[in-house]
Amino acid sequence: MPVPLLGEGSIKRGYLGCPNKDCKSHKITKDELLDISKTSFSPGVRRLMSKVGCDDAFEKGSLDLKEFSGINVDARDIERISENIGNHIQHWDTKNQKEILQKNPLAVPNKEIPIIYIECEGTGVPAISKEVEGRKGKQSDGTSKTREAKLGCVFTQTSVDKEGDPVRDSNSTTYVGAIETSEEFGKRLCAEAIKRRLWQAATVAFIGDGAKWIWNLATEHFFGVIQIVDLYHKMGSTLRKW
Length: 242
Hints:
Blueprint: E1 16-17, E2 26-27, H1 29-33, H2 43-55, H3 58-69, H4 75-102, E3 113-126, H5 129-132, E4 146-160, E5 166-168, E6 174-178, H6 182-195, E7 201-208, H7 212-221, E8 226-229, H8 231-241
Parallel strand pairs: 3-7, 7-8
Antiparallel strand pairs: 1-2, 3-4, 4-5, 4-6
Helix pairs in contact: 2-3, 2-4, 3-4, 4-6, 6-7
């Protein structure tokens, strides 16, 4: 019994089995046509499940779907569907990154964008035991309870305020993020900057908190750009020295 957006229902469909007695394969053509093969959830319901799954806890997502649409799905189903769609997105994103990074930059940039900024940061996020097994951390026994999530953004600037300070262009910020090595994340951030027309910028500024991996990333993928320590960490460093 499939679960579509309008509620549970039943459909009749043919079951086609392999005529060879030693063959256990089968095919249900209507399931493939309706895109419900190997699942009982329609594409529309799966989109809703992945949306609530990425916005909040799976249990809360299950309650929200029941409250807002009358669709009753288990939290474990939301987790499974969200993870499956996330894997598809990651596969597409990895393929897209490779295609972008393989393209040659323009020989003569046309400098359409006055200033483009690239910024990144890393922060620890709680993780389940199997995700931190064997990893060194800050616990008293040397283990870790977190994984480092790396986040980055790209935005542009075309104006300044009355005091002459830069003003970020409205709705110009795009974000990337992942739990991965700095080498992998560097490619991710570089691909995003190229998508945002890195080669069309007259000036490129890279903002970071001073972490070694961040400046290594900036040097490898954005060599020659202006490197800026963000104000929060700069002020903290100044106060500690004082």
